[in-house]
Write a structure and sequence with these properties.
Structural class: alpha+beta
Number of strands: 19
Strand content: 15-25%
Radius of gyration: 28 Å
Helix content: 25-40%
Distance between the termini: 68 Å
Order of helices and strands: EEEEEEEEHHHHHHEHHEEEEEEHEEEEHH
Length: 411
């Protein structure tokens, strides 16, 4: 029995999806619940599993095609029998010819081993496949560094084979052509959505950024003293992020406007604290949400951040893990950023930017001492938050982090 493979019902906020990568080709066996194809939305990557054992008989939508909920993208023949088309009858020219010699392992082409290895890896993404086609490369030519050995766009570029160099460079002019290659690659859905939301924030909000610096000596000493027993007892590493989340929560409780948002002509105050944590993923920047962060212990915060970060890297985040949020934190310090002005994540009214920790000479109690310092940035919507609230909010975070006992005493 032939079964239609359909696009599942997409979340309410997602209108369309793009065919990401087919993990099976026509004629391949498919097991029940095995992922057949990835669908890329502007928020998450969705997997389409097989509802039955069978054979993928037809692929109706190719990678890169735009689809909607309910669209039929392929056909699955239930069962395990494979129908192979009959081999064409021999022509009169072929009659009487000796059968071709069977190819032995010794006769096999050297590329066969590479092709076999490449066939076991997930299919390259649309952008990578386009570049490989232009550069006349096969999957066996490129080493994939993505999940499961998947070839990414960066892998193809790293390989060094440029389409323009092969197709357009005259003989002997390869050196002159190098460095002047142009490539046009469509934006992924998530990249286009990121661009749309960032531009929306700039166009609608009266965005302003205020700065401060924080001495992380006390937090560093706490981590040094308790990190081993913390990890042993809770099964999670004691990082800096849990301190920043807890300090932000204390500041949000003191200055509720920073946790509020604008809806038309209304200010919406939130009695809950859903903190977005910006995470870099293979598909771009995503901001999964720590729900009810004020009800989580520091160990639970660390575990949840680690879990969400791994899901982001594996493209396993669900839609509800990305929606909502009342305040966000982004940490450019992991990439070495010294200072930046983070952009709001609408409809939120503020975002905290963390940066790199640098040992600097500071005056402490009248003496010059070397301290681990970090610049902090708070970008906020000036339509709802005045400069006073923004400055005091950031100063609260600074005070709490420089004297972590305040977290325990809530002072």
């Amino acid at each position: 029995m032939s079964i239609e493979i359909k696009v599942p019902q997409l979340p309410e906020s997602v209108a369309e999806a793009t065919i990401g990568a087919w993990h099976k080709k026509a004629g391949d066996k498919v097991g029940r619940d095995e992922n057949i194809v990835d669908l890329e939305t502007d928020k998450v990557m969705l997997e389409v599993p097989a509802i039955s054992d069978g054979i993928l008989t037809e692929v109706l939508k190719k990678e890169g095609d735009t689809v909607k909920s309910g669209d039929v993208i392929g056909l699955l023949e239930e069962g395990s029998a494979i129908q192979v088309k009959a081999k064409p009858a021999e022509t009169s020219d072929d009659a009487g010819k000796a059968p071709a010699k069977a190819e032995t392992k010794a006769d096999a082409k050297p590329e066969a081993a590479a092709d076999a290895k490449a066939s076991s890896a997930p299919a390259p993404g649309p952008a990578a496949r386009k570049l490989m086609s232009e550069a006349n490369l096969s999957p066996g030519d490129v080493t994939g560094t993505g999940k499961g050995g998947r070839i990414t766009k960066a892998d193809v570029l790293e390989h060094g084979s440029k389409p323009a160099e092969q197709a357009a460079a005259p003989a002997g002019d390869g050196a002159a052509a190098a460095g002047r290659v142009e490539q046009r690659v469509p934006m992924t859905r998530i990249r286009a959505r990121i661009a749309e939301r960032l531009k929306e924030a700039q166009n609608t909000a009266a965005m302003l950024t205020t700065f401060n610096e924080v001495d992380l000596h006390a937090v560093g000493e706490l981590r040094k003293q308790y990190k081993e027993v913390f990890e042993k007892q809770h099964g999670a590493k004691l990082g800096y992020m849990s301190f920043f989340v807890k300090a932000s929560l204390e500041a949000l409780k003191r200055y509720p406007l920073v946790n509020a948002s604008i809806d038309g002509n209304d200010i919406v105050y939130h009695s809950y604290y859903d903190i977005g944590i910006a995470v870099s993923s293979p598909r771009g920047l995503v901001v999964p949400i720590l729900r009810d962060a004020d009800q989580l212990s520091m160990a639970e915060v660390e575990k949840k951040i680690s879990e969400l970060g791994q899901k982001a890297r594996d493209n396993k985040l669900a839609i509800d893990e990305l929606q909502g949020g009342t305040f966000s934190i982004t940490n450019g310090g992991v990439f070495g950023s010294m200072l930046s002005t983070p952009i709001l994540n609408p409809p939120q009214s503020a975002i905290l930017g963390m940066h790199g920790i640098t040992d600097r000479p500071m005056v402490v109690d009248g003496e010059i001492k070397i301290r681990p310092m970090m610049y902090l940035a708070l970008s906020y919507d000036h339509r709802i938050i005045d400069g006073r609230e923004a400055v005091l909010f950031l100063r609260t975070i600074k005070e709490v982090l420089e004297d972590p006992a305040r977290l325990l005493l809530q002072v």
